[in-house]
Amino acid sequence: MKTVWYEKLGPAREVLSFGEMETSEPGPGEVRVKLHASGVNPADVKRRGLGTYGMEHPRIIPNSDGAGTIDALGEDVSHLGMGERVWLFNGQRQGRAYGTAAEYITLDAGLVAPLPDDLDFDAGACLGIPCMTAHRNVFADGPVNGRTILVTGGAGAVGHYAVQWAKWGGANVLATVSSNEKAAHARAAGANHTVNYNDVDAAKQILDLTNGIGVDRIVEVDLAANLELSSQVIRSGGIVSVYASMGDPQGIFMRMAPKNALLRFMVLHSVPREATDAARSDIKTWLAAGHGTHNIAGTFPLNQCVEAHEFVESGNKLGTVIVRPTE
Question: Which residues pair with 17 in a beta bridge?
Fold first, then answer.
């Protein structure tokens, strides 16, 4: 099979190789998927560039998410059929070497779910890290109906889904953004109000929208960058659910302790199985009801995976970057 891999950490252009590898056969409880779309997320490029978990394996095929068709079934797999359209998550993660930047992937059938006929493969490749991470951060602490949820970075790949999930759950949704274009993007997803986080009075604007009480929960894209703002606008006893941070923030205790705030941290590959099962069940229901806006920032053939990774790292994308192994 054609695939992309790296054997050392570093910049995409220096370490990513394109070539042929043997196509593996599925073992018991596994399936092989012929991939039509591979999602490239910030977590994928950080693993390759920054070595988030080190170089755990001699060779790594990058990218966690994907969508395609079942190509082979291992023993004891009954909920999926040959040729079935599917989406998948946690292809490459801590402890697992081979991801979706390839023509095929073989993995545990529990990481694979049916893809609705009316959803294309590019959209299916968004349902892993972006959509499931958003679901976990919105609902990890219970229902959100009637609560006020702030989504920081509401136009980002995860943030855009978090806005949609919070709205679906009945919340009053606020989102921070950095431009008018991104504000429109977040509102299109269902945000009731948007605030430009670069405004000097951004915290006041958010507090005014909550009658001075503060928000019940925050879905946090960068704890280090947003700590000052988030600590000002979280209500007493509120919850901040963090899925990313570009550093370890200083002064976190003195900022959050007076609010008696709860900080929750997560990464998708270690979320409990019951939570990922609940997310996939909700995704199925949500999609069947006609919900879901899936934003594709750009598409690249497999032999341009370097350019796809660089596009993610540029910070200029609005949505998920897709690599298409079949092009």
Answer: 5
DSSP label of 271 = S
In a domain, 287, yes or no: no
Q: Residues 15, 8: contact at Cβ < 8 Å?
A: yes
| b/e map 239-250, b = 16+ CB within 10 Å | bbbbbbbeeebe
Beta-carbon neighbour count of residue 200 at 10 Å?
Answer: 6
Global pTM reads 0.94
Give the residue among 313, 314, 315, 306 at the shortest CA–CA distance from 323: 306
Q: What's the CA gap between 79 and 262, in Å, rounded?
A: 38
Only one residue has tokens 């490749």, namely 125
Q: Alpha helices of the chain — where are they, by DSSP H?
A: 12-15, 42-49, 121-124, 129-139, 157-168, 180-189, 202-209, 223-233, 252-256, 273-288, 305-314
Q: Using an 8 Å Cβ cutoff, are 45 and 64 in contact?
A: no
The answer to whether residues 43 and 99 belong to one domain is: yes
Are 94 and 204 contained in the same domain? no
Residues 87 and 181 in one domain: no
Q: With respect to residue 247, please indicate whether it lies within any of the assigned structural domains.
A: yes
195 by Cβ neighbours in 10 Å (0-12 / 13-18 / 19+) ranks as buried
Query: How many alpha carbons lie under 13 Å from residue 123 in its C-beta half-sphere?
Result: 15
pLDDT tens for the 327 residues of the chain, in order: 999 999 999 999 999 999 999 999 999 999 999 999 999 999 999 999 877 777 889 999 999 999 999 999 999 998 899 999 999 999 998 788 999 999 999 999 999 999 999 999 999 999 999 999 999 999 999 999 999 999 999 999 999 999 999 999 999 999 999 999 999 999 999 999 999 999 999 999 999 999 999 999 999 999 999 999 999 999 999 999 999 998 888 889 999 999 999 999 999 989 999 999 999 999 999 999 999 999 999 999 999 999 999 999 998 888 999 999 987
